[in-house]
Amino acid sequence: MDIVPAIQDLDVKPIFDKSRLKGPQIKIHIVEALELCLHEVAIPPEVVYKPLVRPKKLLREYKFILDPFQKEAIMCIENDESVLVSAHTSSGKTVVGEYAITKSLNLKQRVIYTTPIKALSNQKYREFQEEFGDVGLITGDVTINPTAGCLIMTTEILRNMLYRGSEIIREVSWVIFDEIHYMRDKERGVVWEETLILLPDNVHYVFLSATIPNARQFAEWVAHIHSQPCHVVYTDFRPTPLEHYIFPVGGDCLHMVVNDKGEFNDRNFDLAMKLISNPGLVKKTENSQFRGKKNEGKDSSCLKIVRMVMEKNLAPAIVFSFSKKDCEIYAMQIAKLDFNTSEEKKLVDEIFHNAMDVLSEEDKMLPQVENVLPLLRRGIGIHHGGLLPILKETIEVLFSEGLIKALFATETFAMGLNMPAKTVIFTSVKKFDGREMRSITSGEYIQMSGRAGRRGLDDRGTVILMMEEMFSPQTGKDLFLGKADPLNSAFHLSYNMILNLIRVDDINPEYLLDRSFFQFQNHANIPTFKKDLDEVEAKIDAISIKHEPILMSYQNLIDKMKELKREYLTFIHNPNNLQQFLRAGRLVNLSIPVKGKDKPIEFGWAMLLNFKQVMPKKGSNSSEPKLTIDVLLNMDPNSTKEQPLPCPEDSQGKMTVISMPHTNITELSSVVVVLPRDLRGPDNMATAANAYKEVQDRFKGQPPLLDPVKNMRIKDERFVDLDKMVKNLTKRMEDHKANEIPELKSLMKQLDAKLELVDRKNNLEKEINNCYSLLHMEELKCRKRVLRRLEFCTETDVITLKGRVACEISSADELLLTEMLLAGLFNDLSPHGSVALLSSFVCEEKAPSNLKIPEELTQPLREIKELAKRILNVSMEAKLEGISQDYLESVKPFLAEAIVAWCNGVTFLEVCKITDTFEGNIIRCLRRLEELLRQLVQAAKTLGNQDLEIKFNEGIRLIKRDIVFAASLYL
């Protein structure tokens, strides 16, 4: 009998070196701050901490008293040190950014202010132009005064400047990142990480963010990658406190669930939930804070709330709805109400007509333009991505002037534009996030509800949530009082990023991976893993088990048996081998899987009642029929049918009939019990229970088994070998020394617990190893393999002409477009056809039912599919994860017909008749198309193809006209 040594004596080489167990070595110093804010500083190990000097006189005067967090952040700027300001929406973070601009301009240094969206860039340009004068704007669409001291740009533009080694970067002393929490955006968040890593170490930073719980971690990362101190000034203080109410759909009153001190009212919450579960309970109660007019016929809940808000003088209100169509439906429901005086109506007319003056007469007759004015005159607005950009901006101007009292908006309105209201209303707590319908997170709720309460105008803000589904009190507290979402990295690799990094000297993709926030966050887990590892090792050392070597040897046999049984049971479970033996009353041994756990429950013996065949569903991998069995179990009375547990020894069980898959059977007994035909009556069930007990007593829980080879006649050669091995192993287990140990069962339980800890220890060591290995490294190797095989770079990572062309393309599929350029797909196309074909790469719409594709594009689209197939095959050969046949469907020529019409000079009104897409979506597609064409002009230059350059420039000229490219009102 082979005995293995005890666990602690095993001579196993450690899979990692414990001396490496350190996270990123950043020191944290807590600065004594003014009240209502927290001030910490992250300091790299090589930097000596110097206390900040509070400035005696500021560079600019303020008409208001600065908040403590503003004073703390300005002190950091005065001392030339980077700072992250994390504070609630509308609390005045921009003051800090403006101070950095003032300091830079005073010292004749350049400063860059980056924003996540063009609309916010335009808005900031307007604000800063009035204040500082020496301001420029670069958004891709527009370039104004690029030599200015203060440049406002989108983060993508700054990233591109860094890749191209722009001269501007050398002159920059400060970079201000507005809305830095955008870094967690799945699609675009990676741009912030690239930009921050590529910026030089001598630049200082101001980061403006909504409240993020891990602000310190972000500052540590900045200190780590740029070897400079980074301060965190964090405040949870909200200048205008909020009150939160629930409005049960179908009810007629509001229930205050959180007061302006942030206290949760359980009584009101429970009452609101009762009304949601039983709307018939609606009656006047002292807990109902506000009350609308009693059930007014079929008026919607939204109409009731808006009326209530207006009656209680809580306007202006933003009504958040999670779909564009819903915004319009709700707005139309309240269209008969009128919130504006005749004076305000005149002002609305004046602002609206002045804004629309830039449009042609035909564009002024667009349905969206004509339909929105009657609503705006009544003080009702709509704001979503499907609106014409000029209308969106007009509505923003009207809202900021107080001429819109109820604005129906999607959540994008809360993401960048600083436009607070007195009240925020949610029409639902559910949203579709692109994959599924889910409840909004507390972070999303905080972001949107933060728009309530205008500083200096309201003593408190009001937030109203329309609810039609019940929440548990804990879920309610998590939503209303939960924390903001943490700032987690959304880092991912793209071919454009890899090629640009290969092209730039002194830097490579591995360098970027190593310095990413993603990698840093992973390193930050090391101390936690180290603590867990120490605890697990201490627990393992504390467990001393008698006869451990013998028990370990026995355990090895058990593990071998489990391994053999896995393959063995595939033959037993074959319906052809099993079906004829599934007789009513036969004893079967069951092993029942547990959801979310590796180990199943070894249930023991049960009585089979019957079985039925279940044919596989269409499209499933298996063509074999599956079996469902009904069994009579003696289960623990405290367990459930969903998860039955065996009845403990020496106690009375509960006989229950349960259906389950036939794969839960591990053994069949030759014993067949005679059972009553109908088990529904208590007497018959008692008879079955007695029969079961009798069999258990007679065979002492070990009834004789059907021999699979002799009795069940399974003749497969592999199975016969397996059967011999199982019988041999069973004999070895019966003869093992462990059976001589009297307390074997309890000792094996102790050994099980110890082995679980050893597994946990091994997993922690693997996790720590993963923290040190470069994440995404495997993906980078695969992507580089693809680039080499497609000849975008050489085996020695030298970029080819093809690669340099792909470097120019960042707003669509760079590989496929480069292949198209080199394959000459555009050579025979007209400029109109080229533009329409390229629209397939920027269209985000779903396929319409009446899709028409221009004849000129049918052949190129076939060729694109062939090129895409080649890229897909190479990617699959390179074992790149996450790529599938869906890649072939990523080209969407759904707006091609409309684009051709637009290029042919038809009016926008005519284009809208061709497709049922929202007007704003068509314009977004055309603007993204113009951006892609600009990149392709550069790509054609790199390629040295003048004809293509002329063609793409002509494409830009064809689409860049009228309402689609109407100048922003902010410029």
Explain this structure.
- With 971 residues, this protein is an alpha/beta fold.
- It has 4 domains: 32-234, 3-Layer(aba) Sandwich (Rossmann fold); 242-481, Rossmann fold; 548-740, Elongation Factor Tu (Ef-tu), domain 3 (Beta Barrel); 808-965, Sec63 N-terminal domain-like fold (Orthogonal Bundle).
- The protein has 34 helices and 25 strands.
- The protein has a 10-stranded mixed beta sheet.
- Strand 5 and strand 6 form a beta hairpin.
- Helix 27 crosses helix 28 (814-822) and helix 29 packs across helix 34.
- The chain is globular, with a radius of gyration of 35 Å.
Q: What is the topological layout?
A:
Elements: E1 27-31, E2 38-43, H1 68-78, E3 82-86, H2 94-106, E4 110-115, H3 118-132, E5 135-138, E6 143-144, E7 150-154, H4 155-163, H5 167-170, E8 172-177, H6 189-198, E9 204-209, H7 215-226, E10 230-234, E11 242-248, E12 253-258, H8 266-277, E13 288-291, H9 301-311, E14 317-320, H10 324-333, H11 342-356, H12 361-364, H13 367-377, E15 380-383, H14 389-400, E16 406-409, E17 423-426, E18 430-432, E19 437-439, H15 442-449, E20 461-467, H16 473-481, H17 495-503, H18 509-515, H19 517-524, H20 526-542, H21 548-572, H22 575-578, E21 586-592, E22 601-614, E23 626-635, E24 654-661, E25 665-672, H23 682-698, H24 717-734, H25 744-772, H26 777-789, H27 801-807, H28 814-822, H29 831-838, H30 855-877, H31 896-903, H32 908-914, H33 919-943, H34 946-959
Parallel strand pairs: 3-9, 3-10, 4-7, 4-8, 5-7, 8-9, 11-20, 14-16, 14-17, 15-16, 17-20
Antiparallel strand pairs: 1-2, 2-10, 5-6, 11-12, 12-13, 18-19, 21-22, 21-25, 22-23, 23-24
